Amino acid sequence: MNQAQPDMTEAQPGISGAQPGMSMAQAGMSEAQPRMSMERADIAFKVNGAAVSVCVPPVRRLSSVLRDELHLTGTKVGCDAGDCGACTVLVDGEPICACLMSAASAAGTVVTTVEGLANGRLSALQASFLDHGAAQCGICTPGLLVAATALLDSKPNPTEAETQDALGGVLCRCTGYRKIIAAVMNAGRFASELSTDGAAPNPPAGTFSPY
Ligand code: FES
Ligand code: FES
Fold first, then answer.
1. Strand, coil or helix: 151
2. Contact 91/106 with Cβ under 8 angstroms?
3. Nearest residue by C-alpha to atom 4 in ligand 2
4. CA angle 46, 49, 50 (to 5 degrees)
5. Ligand 2 contact, 144 CB (< 6 A)
6. Residues 6 or more apart from 48 whose CB is under 8 A from it?
7. Would you report the helix, strand and coil content of the chain in percent, each value rounded to 5?
8. Which range is least confidently modeled, 56-70, 169-183, 191-205?
9. Is the pLDDT score of 142 beyond 70?
10. Residue 64 half-sphere exposure toward CB, CA atoms < 13 A
11. How many Å lie between the centroid of ligand 2 and the Cα of residue 22?
12. Which DSSP symbol is given to 52?
């Protein structure tokens, strides 16, 4: 090797010299030079009305923070790519795919997950889903409930087209969507039965059709 072609491995031992199984010191990395994937930050936001703070890598997916750090496993993960909508949550009132949002982007926001929809009892929408038999395997159901909640907040009596449009980002492989659409459009019926704490009464066991 001549001088015009220096041995880059020797010149940059901390990069090209690193091998699996080496310690950080052996690889030429000091504690003062953490790898990007190891860096963490304190990130504070609100979830379902409660202030929370997590110490995670800022690039961590919000869906992972909710499920793995805050144990809010109602938010489902189907694709981790923004395609299925199972991870839909409300961020400042807007439905978003939590798998596409970084923890850093969630700082200072107000997040609502499916766990936040019921106020100790079923919401009117949840009662309507139950009454219509709008869930089968249930993987899509949290995302649908959250997306439909955002719709009903702005349009309490949506048309079928508005409902289809609002739920279009959440895929369901089981139901064929008809019962889901009907449950959302008829949620107002259950809203009229709201109790004083803002939620529909829990249904007596066996009083709702399973289909
Ligand atoms: S898991 Fe987020 S869109 Fe599928
Ligand atoms: S109920 Fe199974 S994917 Fe929707």
1. helix
2. yes
3. 172
4. 60
5. no
6. 72, 111, 112, 113, 115, 116
7. 35, 15, 55
8. 191-205
9. yes
10. 16
11. 46
12. E
Lowest mean pLDDT among 27-31, 140-144, 160-164, 207-211: 207-211
pLDDT digits (tens, 9 = 90+) for 23-63: 444 434 444 444 445 699 999 999 999 999 999 999 999 99
Instruction: Return the CATH number of the domain spanning residue range 124-191.
Output: 1.10.150.120
Task: List pLDDT tens digits, range 55-112.
Answer: 999 999 999 999 999 999 999 999 999 999 999 999 999 999 999 999 999 999 999 9
DSSP string, 81-133: SSSS-TTEEEETTEEEEGGGSBHHHHTT-EEE-GGGT-SSS--HHHHHHHHHT
The structural domains of the chain, with segments of one domain joined by +, span: 40-116, 124-191
Q: Quick one: tokens of 5?
A: 């072609």
Q: Structure tokens of 94? A: 């807007």
Which residue do the tokens 């379902």 mark? 48
Instruction: Say which residue the tokens 């249904």 belong to.
Output: 203
pLDDT attached to residue 38:
64
Q: Is the CB of 160 under 6 A from ligand 1?
A: no
Q: What is the distance, to the nearest Å, from the Cα of residue 47 to the centroid of all Cα atoms in its chain?
A: 11
Which ligand ends up closest to the CA of 85?
1
The superfamily (CATH) of domain 40-116 is: Beta-grasp domain (3.10.20.30)
Ligand 2 centroid from CA 101, angstroms:
23
Q: Provide the ipTM.
A: 0.99
What residues contact 120, with CB distance under 8 A and at least 6 apart? 197, 199
